[in-house]
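Trying the structure run again after the queue cleared.
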Amino acid sequence: MHTLANTLEPFKGFPNYVKNNSEAVLQNVSQIPVEPLLCWEGADTQDPITSALYKMIYVYTLRPDKVFGACRKFVGCVFGESFIEEEQLDLHAITKDEVKPNTPILLSCVTGYDASGRVEDMATNQKQALSNIALGSAEGFALAEKAINAASKNGKWVMLKNVHLAPGWLVQLEKKLHALKAHPNFRLFLTLEVTPKIPVNLLRAGRILTFEPPDGIKANLLRTFNSISANRVNRAPNERARMYFLLAWFHAIVQERLRYTPLAGPRSTSLTSQI
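Done. Tokens:
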């Protein structure tokens, strides 16, 4: 605290203020979230950005465990709230309006995260027929070829999972799509992990969407509930909504715990965004 007073001129009287108003300061820093007392010089005449910076310093000095919230407000003040709010990906709009039938949609995921559930939910909501095929064997290649040929004629969807396991076959797929005359409703989804083995021409020809687990429990909960329709959560009985929240909370905590698996915990654990 004395270091702060000696470093920043507006806070030179800060130690004495805290000493003379200890009860008010203690009550203030006990709030959730902390709304700093304007106890530094020139606090009433500062511009919003400088005020947010000094509030962040106030919180860091007295309650460093709550500085994250103050940092978030500062960043929001500088760049705008839209900068820190997670933008929800409208996969349906991309699939319907922004992608051509012969343009593959590549769902790139970090290791241990599976985005195929999003496509399956979207297909269910849109009542669209979807064929799921996992690659990795000669039988899978034959099934994929057959499914693409059939779906490109009748306008159905095909999702090929784990295509990073078959980089050689993807070269043939890229050539096939280039010459394909598909039904306007045909869509091809490819799920893959981030790897340099994917053919460059396929990446250039496709629409790449990157998915990764959200950082923090709050962001995880927001993403979960943004992916579930309100009608589904609010259906009777009333306990349904509570169970959704408890399950989403447990899922968020376990996913956050996976950050520490290199230090402790089972390495084989893998969770997706599906609950």
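The first strand starts at residue 105 and ends at 109. Worth checking whether this holds up in the mutant runs.
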